[in-house]
Design goal:
By secondary structure, the chain is an alpha+beta fold. Helix content is 41%, strand content 15%. Helix 2 crosses helix 3.
């Protein structure tokens, strides 16, 4: 069964593009590409999906079909939002709301169409498939 990580990695390799090259061509942070290929990111935002599809010469639907949105209804949107706020405010030592294991967190720095800095909190559990994507 093909995973999102394997698909992105294989398409990139077929085209002879490095991780850094893909990051530059798609205007996506290199760490985000690495997290996708490592299987840590299972769901992509629309702009990221479209940028990857363009560079990897495939349809965005091919990528979307392999994504898994695992922030299902088990965890309330209020809890997710409070974790996002804590990440943006620099809180450390956060725990997964599903299993209690440590969360690995980061803030993705991106720019909107007017070149304004936009901060996106990201997190994934070190034990279970829980993740926060913006």
């Amino acid at each position: 069964m093909k995973t999102l990580a394997k698909f992105i990695h294989e398409k990139r390799e077929e085209l002879g593009i490095t991780v850094n090259g893909l990051a530059i061509a798609a205007n996506i942070d290199k760490n985000e590409i690495e997290e996708i290929e490592e299987g840590k990111t299972l769901f992509l935002s629309v702009p990221v999906r479209q940028a990857l599809a363009k560079v990897l010469k495939c349809e965005p639907e091919e990528i979307k079909a392999l994504e898994k949105d695992i922030t299902d209804n088990i965890i309330s949107p209020e809890i997710i939002e409070s974790i996002k706020e804590l990440i943006l405010n620099g809180a450390g030592g956060l725990k997964c709301p599903r299993c209690g294991a440590p969360l690995q967190t980061r803030i993705a720095k991106m720019y909107d169409l007017e070149d304004n800095l936009v901060l996106h909190p990201k997190a994934h559990c070190t034990k279970c498939p829980f993740q926060i994507h913006s």
